[in-house]
């Protein structure tokens, strides 16, 4: 079995899903806690988890409103502070006192917030194409499709639509990789139609309050993370994390590793050979 499917109850009574990839070794290394992006889910980390599992336990969550987790009937709860509470509830449930956070996009914002609120729980943070400044160009791009959950007739139509929107993000993807990416992004309803695998009200929450997506000034938050080693991966063509912001992060953090992943935009999928090489190196240093 590649992973165990588990559930837990959030602080406000929702049933939330996560995958637990048990390590092939009896290791004392802190587990990797994988936190996905805004409209994504735990499946994004599957190939990464399989690669890391021989040496690390990997836990990958579906945040509320995504994948197999409950949708929140109070959509204003779709915001970073709520997600951080959900993560803390999971850590308590699993009895985890120390992890390494691997946060993609929104998952990186959750990781940074968790690091400020509970710094002792984070051995390190790996930020995937996110930082304390968000490029407006990327926000504008995401806003074009966020919450517009139009049903599609079949998987072929879904793949075509995903390639149209996301083609520049992964220019070297094969047909099989596009199929996998699409099936990680959508689900099939009982009527056979294909829809995005997240609650459309996430878009409503963000439209009503920009702070539900990104707090206004994250540099103080980032500054408070000085005691925690951080590595940040940036897609070479990212429209969310600029090269200038990445350089500023390196200047301001005392234990910072910056990496640019070629042929990627927002975000690297962590299956790239370069991504896996630098992540393994970072983890080896953390664990002495």
TrEMBL record:
Name of the featured protein: Alpha/beta hydrolase
Organism per entry: Paremcibacter congregatus
Keyword presence, Transmembrane helix: no
Key words, A-Z: Hydrolase
Gene Ontology molecular-function annotations: hydrolase activity
Domain AB hydrolase-1: 30-174
InterPro entries linked to this entry: AB_hydrolase_1, AB_hydrolase_fold
């Amino acid at each position: 079995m590649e992973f165990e499917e588990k559930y837990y109850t959030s602080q406000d009574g929702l049933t939330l899903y996560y995958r637990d990839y048990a390590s092939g070794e009896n290791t004392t290394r802190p587990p990797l806690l994988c936190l996905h992006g805004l409209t994504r889910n735990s499946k994004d980390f599957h190939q990464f988890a399989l690669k890391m599992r021989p040496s690390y336990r990997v836990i990958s969550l579906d945040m509320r409103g995504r994948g197999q987790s409950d949708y929140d009937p109070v959509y204003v709860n779709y915001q970073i502070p709520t997600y951080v509470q959900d993560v803390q509830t999971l850590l308590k449930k699993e009895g985890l006192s120390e992890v390494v956070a691997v946060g993609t996009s929104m998952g990186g914002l959750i990781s940074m917030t968790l690091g400020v609120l509970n710094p002792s729980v984070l051995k390190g943070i790996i930020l995937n194409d996110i930082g304390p400044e968000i490029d407006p160009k990327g926000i504008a791009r995401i806003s074009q499709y966020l919450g517009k959950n139009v049903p599609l007739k079949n998987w072929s139509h879904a793949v075509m639509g995903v390639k149209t929107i996301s083609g520049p993000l992964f220019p070297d993807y094969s047909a099989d990789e596009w199929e996998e990416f699409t099936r990680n992004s959508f689900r099939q309803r009982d009527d056979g139609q294909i829809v995005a695998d997240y609650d459309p009200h996430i878009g409503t929450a963000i439209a009503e309050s920009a702070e539900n997506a990104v707090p206004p000034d994250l540099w103080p938050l980032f500054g408070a993370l000085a005691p925690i080693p951080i590595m940040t991966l940036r897609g070479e063509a990212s429209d969310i994390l600029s090269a200038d912001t990445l350089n500023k992060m390196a200047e301001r953090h005392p234990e910072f590793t910056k990496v640019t992943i070629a042929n990627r935009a927002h975000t690297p999928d962590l299956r790239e050979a370069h991504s896996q090489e630098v992540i393994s190196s970072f983890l080896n240093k953390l664990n002495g």
